[in-house]
Amino acid sequence: MNIRWSICCLVVAVFMCLVVCASAPDPVTTASPDECSNFSGAGKCDECVKALKGKCFYCKTDNKCQLYPVKELLPTKECDLGAARWGTCAINFKALIISMSVIAGVLILSICCGVYCCCCRSKGNRAKWAREDAKVERQKEERKMKHEQKKQERKAKNDEIRRKYGLMNDDDGSYHKLENP
Q: Which residue from 37, 50, 39, 45 is spatially nearest to 61, judged by alpha carbons?
């Protein structure tokens, strides 16, 4: 199995495990609305959003700390999203939802692009490299054949010159001049 494919599958598996772990609900501890209302009042936003490990949210319009409605996804009945604070007082709930959605979208898009580039596009590249390697090998063989052909032509030309001037190669490897009778 290709190593890139294994790495891509591992990254996807780890990402899926992180998503499952992050979306898993915490152990259910019921908090009463009275516990969150203890943090109501002007200037108690920081205390409210940190109370009971994030189970409360703060509404800036009426300065109330309320229990987060878990059964509903968004606390729209209790407070306007622009005035609701959860997790931090610096960012309203609407901005928090938009920013988290954008971050999640960019993260998912980048992971999809990475998986596509690593896994899907590499198949075409392998064929491309195989064609390129075959072409280089073919050119190498052609050069080798031309070299051998030119070597034979040089040898034939040298032998012809030796015969013309009467220089012949003896069996012992030395040259001698042939005398005309």
A: 45
Which 3 state secondary structure label does DSSP give 85?
strand
Distance CA 10, CA 115 (A): 11
Res 1 pLDDT > 50:
no
Tokens of 149: 């052909």
The tokens describing 116, both together, are 């596509």
What is the spatial distance between Cα 40 and Cα 42, in angstroms, rounded to a whole number? Answer: 7
Q: Are strands 167-169 and 56-59 parallel, antiparallel or unpaired?
A: unpaired
Q: Which residue has the tokens 């073919």?
A: 138
Closest CA to 103 of 22, 176, 43: 22
Stretch (H or E) spanning 57: strand 56-59
pLDDT tens, position by position, 52-96? 887 888 888 888 888 888 787 777 777 888 888 888 888 888 888
Instruction: Give the position of tokens 């990254």.
Output: 11
Q: Please give the Cα distance from 33 to 124 (Å, whole number).
A: 60
In this structure, what is the dihedral angle of CA atoms 88, 16, 70, 91, given to the nearest 10 degrees?
20
Q: Which two tokens stand for residue 113?
A: 């692009």
Contact by Cβ (8 Å): 160, 168: no
Q: Which two tokens stand for residue 123?
A: 């198949």
Give the DSSP H or E segment for 167.
Answer: strand 167-169
Q: Is 72 helix (H, G, I), strand (E, B) or coil?
A: coil
